[in-house]
Automatic annotation (TrEMBL):
Functional note: Has a dual role in the assembly of mitochondrial ATPase.
Membrane topology: Peripheral membrane protein
InterPro entries assigned: Peptidase_M76_ATP23
Major location (coarse): mitochondrion
UniProt keyword annotations, A-Z: Hydrolase, Membrane, Metal-binding, Metalloprotease, Mitochondrion, Mitochondrion inner membrane, Protease
Organism from which the protein derives: Physocladia obscura
Pfam families per the UniProt record, alphabetical: Peptidase_M76
Protein name (Swiss-Prot/TrEMBL): Mitochondrial inner membrane protease ATP23
GO terms for cellular component: mitochondrial inner membrane
Family: Belongs to the peptidase M76 family.
Cell location: Mitochondrion inner membrane
Taxonomic path: Eukaryota, Fungi, Fungi incertae sedis, Chytridiomycota, Chytridiomycota incertae sedis
GO terms for MF: metal ion binding; metalloendopeptidase activity
Gene: ATP23
Any Gene Ontology biological process: mitochondrial protein processing
EC number: 3.4.24.-
């Protein structure tokens, strides 16, 4: 069994409303199929399962903290975003970037750059995260500017295409992000929201001069 950790911005930052932390992956449940499917086995092994699961979580959390320190030191993009958050009045420090277990709906490997771009948008435009259109705009910008749709990443996902690959990736992943909103999981709500705001939000590269 393995547990995945992702980055998020802490709710303790006074300049960011609590809703900004919707981007955080949190409150993980530990799923052990072989045990969950057998209540008797679950009862008899509950103590050892809890102990082993906690050890795995502690190990993964320690690895995530090391990864965070490395990114803060070596990632030019993360340093750039931290500097720009400070410029707009929402300074973040190491303590505001937390490692937390992903829930069952997220695969893990959460890109910290995406969280910082969400934080920047929330600080500068006061995003209503419950609005499909505003959430769609934030998702488009975050995916577009974070490097999430670099050709190498898309190739590993098996989604690489030559013509307009970047735009297709941003659109697809923005839709997936909006579908996490209650009421947007089914139907065309997410697709429609992304379509409505696409042009203005895809072309908005603030605080970058162009797509990194």
């Amino acid at each position: 069994m393995s547990s995945w950790f992702g980055f998020g911005t802490s709710q303790t930052q006074p300049n960011l409303a609590a809703s900004a932390s919707d981007i955080i992956v949190k409150n993980a449940e530990i799923f052990i199929p072989a045990v969950n499917q057998n209540p008797l086995l679950a009862d008899s092994l509950s103590t050892s399962v809890t102990t082993n699961a906690q050890k795995i979580l502690d190990k993964d959390c320690a690895q995530c903290e090391k990864f965070k320190d490395k990114l803060l030191k070596n990632s030019a993009m993360i340093r750039f975003m931290m500097q720009n958050l400070e410029k707009v009045g929402c300074p973040l420090t190491k303590k505001h970037l937390i490692c937390t277990p992903c829930d069952k709906d997220r695969a893990g490997g959460f890109a910290p750059e995406i969280g910082l771009i969400h934080a920047f948008d929330h600080c500068t435009t006061n995003v209503n995260w419950k609005s499909p259109e505003q959430h769609a705009c934030a998702e488009i910008r975050a995916v577009n500017l974070s490097g999430e749709c670099r050709a190498t990443r898309e190739f590993r996902r098996g989604n690489f295409q030559i013509a307009k690959h970047h735009q297709a990736c941003v659109r697809r992943r923005a839709i997936l992000g909006v579908k996490m909103l209650p009421g947007c999981e089914t139907g065309s709500v997410a697709e429609d929201a992304v379509r409505v705001v696409w042009d203005s939000c895809f072309n908005d590269t603030t605080p970058f001069d162009e797509i990194p």
